[in-house]
Structures are given as C-alpha cells and as structure tokens.
Amino acid sequence: MQSPIIFVTGTDTDVGKTFVSTLLVKRWNANYWKPVQTGLESDQGDTKTVMDHCIAQGEHTPICFPPKYELQKPLCPLEAMEYEPDIEIAMSDFCLPDDDSERALIIEGAGGVYVPLTKKLHITTDLIKHLIASTDRPFKIVVVARSGLGTLNHTLLTWEHLVSAGLKNHLWGCVLNGEKNPGNVNVLRKFGVNIITEVDFCPNDADLGTLVDNIPDVDFS
C-alpha cells in the first residue's frame, strides 16, 4: 500500500492544528508540509514548531518540506497578500513535494476549510481537491476542533461543508483538542462525525508521548 496523505484542517484559528499535526507526524513517523504560512512577522512558523517538538523528543526527525508560500502578516492568505504585492498565490502552483521516503505525509492547512487563499477566492477546500486530483496515494482529512462549549456548531458546519463538497469518502474524522467533554462527543457522533480521539492540553514535550499513543492506527487502503 502506498503511504497515506493526511490533510489537517480546523474549525477555527488556534484550535490546535499544529499540535495535532505533530502528534500525527510522531505517531506514523511521517513527514510534514505546510503549503501556506502566514504571520511570520510575529511567529517562527508551524514548520519550525513541528520540527522543534520532534527534535525535543529525539525519536523521529521528519522531513519538513518548506511552504510554497510564506507571508508576513498574521492574516488569511488573501488579506496578507495585500501587504506583499509581489506575491500572488495561484492554485495551479501547488503540487505535492517530491518524497521518496515512503513515509506518510501530514499536510497542515491555513486556518479552516473556508479560509480564502487566492485572489480568485479559492479556499482551503479547493486546495484539498486540487491535491487529491494530483495523486493516487490514499488521502484523508482530519478536522481539529475545540472540545468545549461552541464546538458543536463550528464542527458540524465544517463537517457538512466537506461532505457537500464531495469529500465524504476522504473524511477520516475529528480530533477534539482540550478538556474531555463526553456530551459534545456524544452529540457529534449522533450527527455522523467520526471522533478519532480526544487530546488534553499538553504543557511540555515530555508529555507528547502519552498523547501520541492515543492516535489509533488505521488502514487507509
């Protein structure tokens, strides 16, 4: 079986996509790619964050492919481009990185599924479809959501959007990030959302190993 590609998206900004991406990288000894990075004027970027976490653990050092686009302002890519007129994101420019390592590839999106990426108003969902069309590798989507109050609306809207976009067969499930909330898990499951796992807040790298063990193995064939 070809190694899978996992696209990590979220229900909102700062829901823990990079944290969950790190767990997935470690769980499967995978590689990592962030196609579009914004906010570099105030943050080191998610690629370095993932690498730093993995180095701190000292077990698996992934190949972290450089972003296709990097922008300075901590804004959505469409708005960030206004401050850097020499950059224009085009959907046709995105292609999967060359990788002969036979490892899984974790791709982390920018924000949520409806974040606008291009001046033609392509959104994250369009990027997912574009990448799926460019490969015959198993391709699955993970939605990262907050565990607490307010997550039901955001998560169900995200899930329904992806289903309506024709991506139901590529949806693996949802990772709930934060203090465990059995009530929200129960409701999401009633609406057909697959809950992959729940992950608690992780204060330091030393605790990552326990959380990695919570990520189930899965056959993506």
Automatic annotation (TrEMBL):
An MF annotation (GO) of this entry: magnesium ion binding
Biological process per Gene Ontology, one example term: biotin biosynthetic process
Protein name, UniProt field: LAFE_0B00408g1_1
Native source organism of the sequence: Lachancea fermentati (Zygosaccharomyces fermentati)
